[in-house]
Amino acid sequence: MVGFDLDLTLLDARAGIRATFAALSAETGVAVDGDAVVGRLGPPLETELAYWFPAAQIPAQADRYRQLYAVHAIPASAPMPGAARAVAAVRRHGGRVVVVTAKNTALAQASLAVVGLAVDVVEGARFADAKGAALLEQHVDIFVGDHVGDMIGARAGGAHAVGLTTGPCSADELRAAGADTVLTHLDEFPAWGPGAAPRRGGPPAPPGGAVGRRPAWRRPGTALRSERCWWPTRSGAERISPVRWGPRSPG
Questions:
Q1: CA dist 110 to 71, 79, 228, Å?
Q2: Residue 78: is it exposed, middle or buried by C-beta count within 10 angstroms (0-12/13-18/19+)?
Q3: N or C: which end of the chain has fewer CB within 10 A?
Q4: Distance between alpha carbon 211 and the CA centroid of its chain, in Å?
Q5: CA–CA separation, 135 vs 128, rounded Å?
Q6: Taking the CB of residue 203, how many other CB atoms lie within 10 A of it?
Q7: Contact in structure between 144 and 6 (CB atoms under 8 Å)
Q8: pLDDT per residue as tens digits for the range 205-246
Q9: pLDDT tens for each residue of 91-121
């Protein structure tokens, strides 16, 4: 079983997210910077809304955003380069495909349908350690994502962590969060091979190629941290934990 993150891994939703936040801004009078938003995609919707709205307003604004997303973002969805080939490579190896995403399940399924990507399972409203729980439940052997939260989830779920530099996080940040393998984009995934990593409970992957030893996890120092890639905690402390200001039903 191979798992994929959604936004900036399989799906390019940036144009639609900009349009959705523009519509939300028009309704609320709050000037949300769409470019800043799409520059740090990955964490739950509520995390992003906390940059722009008081905590008490976040649940209602999250609900409204999702309503607007269905109108403005779903039709504008596009596949990331190499997405269809990556999914096809998993199928050629006899594997199943699961998407584990911070986006809620209904919007994730609608987005995949629009871009024509058929997957076996969609697990929505999952981020960081919560992705790990889904990976364990689905017996995922390899997890591919563009964010440090995806690498944290892969480690928590016991999957081989494949980082992509198609999102806000650098190769160094992905490795620091636990990536076993880092690829520049999904077009490299079929050549790397879904069969390159060990299956859950199997022997270690052979040395050489893109596959390396799982690095010892460490909390990245200041030089590796960036607002685009890491996310604030409620207390403001430097710990790796998703914001919990709003309900755990990410956008």
A1: 11, 13, 26
A2: middle
A3: N
A4: 21
A5: 11
A6: 7
A7: no
A8: 333 333 333 333 333 433 344 567 876 654 332 233 332 222
A9: 999 999 999 999 999 999 999 999 999 999 9
